[in-house]
Amino acid sequence: MADIVNLRQFRKRKAKDAKEQTAAEHRIVFGRTKTEKQFEENAGRKTGLFLESNRLEGQPSASDDDKDKP
User: Fold this and answer.
1) Domain count of the fold of the chain
2) Which residues does 55 contact at the CB level (< 8 Å), separation at least 6?
3) Which domain does 48 fall in, by range?
């Protein structure tokens, strides 16, 4: 004899499984770990500090050019 199945619960379970499958695919494609994000952020900050500390003072910067124009 067949099991009695509530169709509403079956549809909800099927939709939930489909969403979970989509989420798993997106985690593979778009996901990065917290450590990877922090590493990239720290590398960008370190590069910015290095460039700022080695800026030549005699050279006009892009922000100085905007001040001369009316």
Assistant:
1) 1
2) 61
3) 23-52
